[in-house]
Design brief:
The complex is a heterodimer. Chain A has helices at about 5-40, 55-65, 75-90, 120-140, 145-175, 180-185, 195, 200-210, 225, 235-260, 275-300, 305-330, 340-365, and strands at about 95-105, 105-110. By secondary structure, chain A is mostly helical. Chain B has a single domain (about 80-315, about 350-420), classed as Orthogonal Bundle (Cytochrome-c3 Hydrogenase, chain B). The longest helix of chain B is centred in the N-terminal third of the chain and has 29 residues, at about 125-150. Classes of the chains: A mainly alpha, B alpha+beta.
Chain lengths: ~375, ~425
């Protein structure tokens, strides 16, 4: 290991951090603008030309806000909680391949920070840490609303982690590797896994929405019910960190959905011009983020117990059956690819969809409301 | 700080801020005293209590064991204030009661004064009153739909509804010069006739709005999450609805076709052809459907009233109670005297009392008005629908989750200005 390699890692880490943090700031702007368009408003347009400096103004405002710590709060945990939330959201993107290898100053540079062979496991592990921040924030605030938000968050995470995990396993099965780079490369022929596993893709993005607490799964911070949920007592930069964590996780989930199911950085002409890779990935993330914003603008919020029922009674069995049947297909035709794989997997998808309709009717149809 | 708490059986004064469980033990179950359930204070500063309603919740997990509404945070003493004002001045106070139904409040007050002093209202004024009250009903229902959907997390509906409400507020500004606090109806008729362009503006709205209702319904009526959140929630039985004296869309959602516009018509509602929508289920979803249909029925009434809008004066000719037109003051001595008398001293009302009620967007809005022979009312009392309907909240919310509670509050459609007065 030479010094140049270490410098390369450091530089790449700094660049990724900068991209994520700027991405966070401009994602808030993007969301506000897109929401405004959907809701026949104009959105932020005062700060800078077309409102482009709005994130900067928001940041400055939050920095100058007073940091309040409630007298009865558990101080150490209270301060630690936002950090626990935001750090995993940042480090999770380390395994993401942004592109293929490019030539910079005569040096072959791979456009990914850490191409580790257990990338998927790494994502699962780190993603689960983030919930601790939310639960601890809710608990340490010593506020009933915050505690309820924290409890909801933990219940939600447990319900959706399994479905998310099984959805992760699909690309692993199809590509035969846990490295995100390999998964991307395996989709190089244009047979993105969304075509082979549309149901898997939908399970992934639904569970992903729940994982990042976005509407309609934004129960832990349901404003109309719990005022602000787990971050009720937070202000200033500590609040901003929660905000940052949520939005960076949005970017991360979109990036992983793009990598696992939409071919990652793959696209026409990317082999000749490797610099197109990050651009393609960015476009895919952009579209997925719009989908998340769109959902927020359109759908009402789930109820706490119904969300759990949906997670356990519908999403989990469906994703598990999907995984099982896909595994059977992969075992029977290990060498199949492209169309030969597409046909049996379509049969699997249709079967799983049928199962989903049955489970929806059975699991959510007969509902109990009054305890 | 002493806070009055409304109980199911009446008023009682209890200190809640002292946090002594002993003092509130008659409000909560024994399990709260033992520490098995959580007491949660919801409001008065809470995004979903539609103003300054405070709820003391006893929760088992997220399930509501007890719900104790606490009102009075918006008490403005409107009724008492009106006793110190002349009949014409007091009308301005009515706008401030239910700020989403200003025209309806004006109407019920004017009807009461007209009944007290026996004053006639010309047909054109009657028709315009109906048009404006029905527009106001739509505006009020739009605010209800907007906030109700927002409480359930559907945020875009909120802005769509306010977009259409803006059209109605424009029409109100056009006729009265004010968007909300209109005071447009006056005893004996209207403040003045509608301006040129009023009819076109209303017709424009009639053309536009049916498609917009479709848009809201597209977003909500068949939305599985919305249905999941509203069906079977907060069920109000027919018997309970009658026993608690509830009125308005909340009981029409329980299958009781009680609408004052039909059962005791006022302001010429008997001339118009419209249906009273009802549903049998009695849940939040049924109330939602009833209110959506009511908006369509209001459109029907407005269309009929506008088509048959008669020509003629908009104010009674009874100069003892209604100021003369400006043009007469320069030429007629009598007109000048009347004008001076009415604007400086008002008019006396006989020693008598009247009660009259109308169908507000929230239910039966009644006013009791007592004159003592002088130019000021001796007593004014409002029977406001929000106040009466809010009583049902503890009954409706018991056993539901906190998330359902905000939906139930929204479906009762309270306005705290109407509750507290």
């Amino acid at each position: 290991m030479d010094a140049a390699l270490i410098w390369e890692w450091v530089i790449k880490s700094v660049i990724i951090l900068l991209i994520m943090l700027t991405g966070f700031a401009y994602l808030t702007f993007y969301e506000r603008k897109a929401l405004a368009r959907i809701q026949v408003r104009i959105g932020p347009n005062r700060a800078g030309p077309g409102g482009w400096l709005q994130p900067v103004a928001d940041g400055i405002k939050l920095i100058f806000k007073e940091e309040l710590i409630p007298g009865s709060a558990e101080k150490v945990t209270f301060i630690l909680a936002p950090i626990i939330t935001v750090v995993p959201a940042l480090v999770i993107t380390a395994v993401l391949p942004w592109g293929d290898t490019v030539q910079i100053f005569g040096r072959q540079v791979s456009l990914s920070l850490a191409n580790i062979n257990v990338g998927v496991l790494y994502i699962m592990a780190i993603a689960s840490i983030a919930v601790y921040g939310i639960v601890l924030a809710g608990w340490s605030s010593n506020n009933k609303y915050a505690t309820m938000g924290g409890l909801r968050a933990s219940a939600q995470m447990i319900s959706y982690e399994l479905a998310l995990g099984t959805a992760f396993a699909l690309p692993v099965l199809l590509s035969g590797s846990m490295s995100l780079k390999d998964i991307t490369v395996a989709q190089g022929g244009g047979w993105w896994y969304i075509f082979l596993q549309p149901v898997g893709f939908f399970i992934f993005i639904i569970a992903g929405l729940a994982e990042v607490n976005r509407s309609p799964f934004d129960l832990p911070e349901a404003e109309q019910e719990l005022t602000a949920g787990y971050h009720t007592e937070y202000s200033g930069m500590k609040f901003a960190l929660f905000y940052m964590g949520e939005y960076i996780k949005m970017i991360a989930v979109s990036a992983f959905a793009a990598t696992f199911f939409l071919g990652g950085y793959q696209g026409p002409g990317v082999t000749q011009y490797p610099w197109l890779g990050p651009l393609y990935l960015f476009l895919k993330i952009f579209v997925l983020l719009f989908w998340m914003i769109w959902m927020r603008a359109t759908l009402p919020r789930f109820r706490y117990d119904r969300l759990m029922a949906f997670g356990w009674k519908v999403l989990f069995p469906v994703s598990f059956a999907n995984l099982l049947l896909t595994a059977v297909v992969v075992i029977i035709w290990p060498q199949a690819s492209g169309l030969a794989l597409f046909v049996p997997l379509m049969v699997v998808n249709v079967l799983v969809l049928l199962l989903a309709t049955v489970l929806m009717a059975a699991g959510l149809g007969g509902k109990k409301n009054v305890a | 700080m002493r806070t009055p708490v409304i109980l199911e059986d009446g008023m009682s004064n209890v200190t809640l801020s002292a946090v002594s469980l002993d003092e509130i033990k008659h409000l909560v179950s024994d399990r709260a005293i033992e520490g098995e359930t959580v007491l949660l204070n919801m409001g008065p500063q809470h995004p979903s209590t539609h103003g300054v309603l405070r709820l003391l919740l006893e929760l088992d997990g997220e399930t509501i064991v007890n719900c104790v509404p606490d009102i009075g945070f918006l008490h403005t003493g409107v009724e008492k204030n009106m006793e110190a004002k002349r009949y014409l001045q007091a009308e301005v106070m009515t706008d401030r009661l239910d700020y989403l139904n200003t025209m309806g409040n004006n109407l019920v007050y004017c009807l009461a004064v007209e009944k007290l002093v026996d004053l006639d209202v010309p047909p054109r004024a009657q028709a315009i009153r109906v048009i404006m009250t029905e527009l106001q009903r739509i505006a009020s229902h739009l605010v209800w739909l907007a906030t109700h959907a927002l409480d359930l997390g559907a945020m875009s509906v909120f802005l769509y509804c306010f977009r259409e409400r803006e059209n109605i507020l424009d029409i109100m500004e056009m006729v009265s010069g004010q968007r909300m606090m209109t005071t447009y109806f006056r005893p004996g008729g209207l403040w003045r006739d509608v301006p040129v362009g009023f009819e076109e503006a209303v017709r424009q709205f009639l053309r536009l709005f049916p498609a917009r209702i479709e848009q809201y319904e597209d977003l909500l009526t068949n939305n599985p999450i919305f249905i999941d959140r509203t069906k079977g929630i907060g069920v109000l039985s027919k018997e309970d609805a009658l026993a608690w004296g509830l009125t308005g869309p909340i009981i029409r959602g329980s299958g009781i076709p009680y609408d004052l516009r039909k059962v005791q018509p006022y302001s010429g509602y008997e001339q118009y052809d419209f249906d009273v929508p009802t549903r049998e289920e009695g849940d939040v979803y049924a109330r939602y459907l009833v209110r959506m249909e009511e908006m369509r029925q209001s459109l029907r009434i407005i269309r009929q009233a506008l088509d048959g809008l008669p020509y003629g004066p908009v104010r009674s000719n009874n100069r003892k109670f209604v100021p003369p037109p400006r043009s007469e003051i320069g030429t007629s001595m009598e007109a000048l005297i009347h004008h001076f008398k009415i604007w400086t001293d008002g008019f006396p009302a006989p020693k008598n009392s009247v009660f009259i009620s109308v169908e507000s967007p929230r239910g039966e809005l009644g006013v009791y008005l007592e004159g003592d022979g002088g130019n000021k009312p001796y007593r004014v009392h409002f029977r406001t629908p929000s106040f009466v309907n809010l009583q049902a909240l503890p009954m409706l919310s018991k056993g539901h989750l906190v998330a359902d509670l905000v939906g139930i509050i929204g479906s009762i459609d309270i306005v705290l200005g109407d509750v507290d007065r």
